[in-house]
Amino acid sequence: MQELTIAPVTQTDVAMLDSALRQLAAELGDVYRADQPTLGAAICGPGAGCLALLAHRDGRPVGAVLAAPVFSTMRGGTGLFVSDLWVAHDSRGEGLAPRLLSASLQEGARRGWAQFLKLSVYHDNIKARAVYDRLGFTAADGETTMILTGAQLDTLKERP
After folding, report:
1. What average pLDDT score do residues 146-150 get?
2. Which residues fall within 8 angstroms of residue 5, CB to CB, at 6 or more apart?
3. Which of 61, 100, 105, 152 is geometrically suited to a Cys-Cys bond with 65, CB 3.0 to 4.6 A?
4. 3-class SS string, 56-81
5. Which residues, 6 or more positions from 56, have their beta carbon under 8 angstroms from its beta carbon?
């Protein structure tokens, strides 16, 4: 077994990242609407606003993380919001998720985005929640994640 490597995604890695994130979406029962050009632009384009890392072993991806900067006046700076974190089934239980989060913070620090780390976890994802609890994450009291999409988003965009 080769050594594990974790590295930032480059344009040539976008297809592998896309495949990993599609696997994550399928495991969670989520819809996956991103396409490779959009994903590549978000990570590697001139106005790239995200960071992505892939963990490789034996030439295949075994983990991935996608995160974006988020500024908080309450926290006093810019942190990372981890939107996607995936570990291959055969690599689970090896401590890869904490390694990916650590590598994300290191890359985020290089970019000035490491004041805090934020993520969401599904209520029924008990194993992931246990990992986050062990790492010291705490649930944000008094917060509810709200999302606006579709026609309501379009309506708000056009509001004077």
Report:
1. 92
2. 55, 56, 57
3. 100
4. EECCEEEEEEEEEEEEECCCCEEEEE
5. 4, 5, 6, 7, 62
